[in-house]
Amino acid sequence: MMDDKFAGHRKKMVETQLISRDIKDQKVLDAFYRVPRHLFVSLEMRSQAYEDYPLPIAHNQTISQPYIVALMTQSLGLKGGEKVLDIGTGSGYQTAILAEIASHVYTVERHRLLSETAAEVLNELGYKNISYKIGDGTKGWPEEAPFEGILVAAAAIRLPEPLLEQLANNSTMIIPVGDLQQQELLSIKKDNEGNISKEKIVGCRFLPLIGAE
Ligand code: SAH
Q1: What strands lie across the sheet with 171-178, from one edge to the other?
Q2: Whose Cα sits closest to atom 17 in ligand 1?
Q3: What pTM was estimated for this model as a whole?
Q4: Ligand 1 pocket check: which of 39, 57, 60, 61 to mutate, most ligand atoms within 8 Å of Cβ?
Q5: Residue 20's CB: how many other CB atoms inside 10 A?
Q6: pLDDT value for 57
Q7: What is the reported pLDDT for 3?
Q8: Which residues of 58-78 are buried (b: 16+ CB within 10 A; e: fewer)?
Q9: Are 174 and 201 in contact (CB under 8 A)?
């Protein structure tokens, strides 16, 4: 990807916010070195794009803090080449990070404007391995299932059943679960026989997932 005046900011972000914490997966770090985060926020926010906090995007939504995006991605445990489902496209930043590692990313967003804006930026950057859908992500994308990784960027009150069903065997789903006050980022794994296990990664605070499930 082309070089730009924020390359230095990006390198510093990776070193001081990711490596210095617990992000060790080189595929994830490489993705963060490459994806120009400033292009996913408004012009006014660009100078803050590489700071250690979330930023506002349209429709009162936010682009998560870089570390949280990295932690969620690392927790997916992708080896490279997987088919991944991304719920809550938002700015498209997380989608880009996933598209750097996965072979194809299917991303669902309920707000048309957010989805279209994200698609424009991602197309401009040259990503050809992303499919977009406007709709309720709690229903997943049944036509394209199963997925070898599912990442949900908004908090669910409970685990959406369709997403569990659409998770392939030997695959992981990362999803924040809880109410507005208290949430846990969960890693849900399906083993090779289809058995489900859950593990808490960290306490967190995401905006709510709004949908049927
Ligand atoms: N991954 C995004 C973060 C977006 S914040 C990024 O990197 O910028 C969470 C997003 O989930 C918001 O854009 C919100 O509109 C969307 N969302 C909430 N409920 C949803 C649902 N049921 N289906 C699809 N998208 C949903």
Answers
A1: 130-134, 104-109, 83-87, 150-152, 171-178, 183-190, 196-204
A2: 88
A3: 0.96
A4: 61
A5: 10
A6: 92
A7: 52
A8: eeebbbbbbbbbbbbbbbbeb
A9: yes
Residue 207 in contact with ligand 1 by CB distance below 6 A:
yes
Alpha helical stretches, state H, the chain: 7-13, 26-34, 66-76, 93-101, 112-124, 161-166
At 180, which amino acid appears?
Answer: L
Question: What is the token pair recorded at 116?
Answer: 């279209």
Residue with tokens 């905006």: 207
Per DSSP, the chain holds a count of helices (H) and strands (E) of 6, 9
Whole-angstrom distance, CA of residue 207 vs CA of residue 153: 8
Instruction: Indicate if ligand 1 lies below 6 Å from the C-beta of 138.
Output: yes
Q: What burial class does residue 173 get, using C-beta atoms within 10 Å of its C-beta: 0-12 exposed, 13-18 middle, 19+ buried? A: buried
Q: What was the pLDDT predicted at 2?
A: 54
> Which tokens go with 198?
């859950």
* Spatial CA neighbour of 77 closest among 106, 103, 101, 105: 101
Identify the CATH class of 52-204. alpha beta
Mean pLDDT of each 10-residue bin along the chain, 213 residues long: 80 98 97 97 95 93 96 98 97 98 98 97 98 98 98 95 98 94 94 97 89 80
Look up 64 and say whether it is catalytic. Answer: yes
